[in-house]
Amino acid sequence: QEQNKQERKVRSREKKEADELRMFELKQQKKREKHRGH
């Protein structure tokens, strides 16, 4: 039971980091597109 809790914590942290990375990538992409003069 204890290991389950630990695993869930690790997995949720990984998911959070992945989400933040994706948001960051999206922001960078938008910034680049703006520079192309659209």
From TrEMBL:
<feature type="compositionally biased region" description="Basic and acidic residues">
    <location>
        <begin position="1"/>
        <end position="28"/>
    </location>
</feature>
<dbReference type="InterPro" id="IPR016787">
    <property type="entry name" value="UCP021328"/>
</dbReference>
<feature type="compositionally biased region" description="Basic residues">
    <location>
        <begin position="29"/>
        <end position="38"/>
    </location>
</feature>
<dbReference type="Pfam" id="PF11208">
    <property type="entry name" value="DUF2992"/>
</dbReference>
<protein>
    <submittedName>
        <fullName>YjdF family protein</fullName>
    </submittedName>
</protein>
<feature type="region of interest" description="Disordered">
    <location>
        <begin position="1"/>
        <end position="38"/>
    </location>
</feature>
